[in-house]
Amino acid sequence: MNMEVVSKMTSMIFIKEAGMAMYFFTIYSLFGWLLENCYNLITNRKFFKPNFLIGPFKPMYGFAPLLLVYFVTPETNWMIAILLCFLIPTIVEYASGMLLQKIFNRQWWDYSNLPLQLHGHICLPFSVCWVVLSLFCLKIIHPVVLTSYEGIGLIWNFLWPITLFYFFVEFVAAIRRHTTLAHSISH
Question: Which residue positions in the chain have pLDDT lower than 50?
């Protein structure tokens, strides 16, 4: 096999993997938005909770399952899987909370009144919830999401660059909006 063929095959594999990752990220970010708003409805009797983005997506919920899907395979020891289901979402949540607070001087959630919390960004009770939700996601939800991807994979190959562009624009707009808001609050 010549190098040009190998290079084209590698590019095709990368594009397919990137498209699949973008699909998972999009679906799980949407599920996260639904989960957060349903939780807010139950706890505060109001469905809509202010979001970093304008659209119905919570990127934190896109990144954690995406990482879990790639790190927890069917061959992964169950104790390692549970540990990863605890660590990955907790680390993503802490990093997200810390970055949002440092960059925008705003805390989107605050666990400081809950036991075993760290800087209000994470706490043990929610980390335990992440384990349960992560296992449910890996065992029940992800197989359905994977099947749906396989059903629309060819169409998605054309859509995912548009979706990536949407998230880029949404992210830039959110940074501008929240930076302006943080600046106006501090002055």
Answer: none
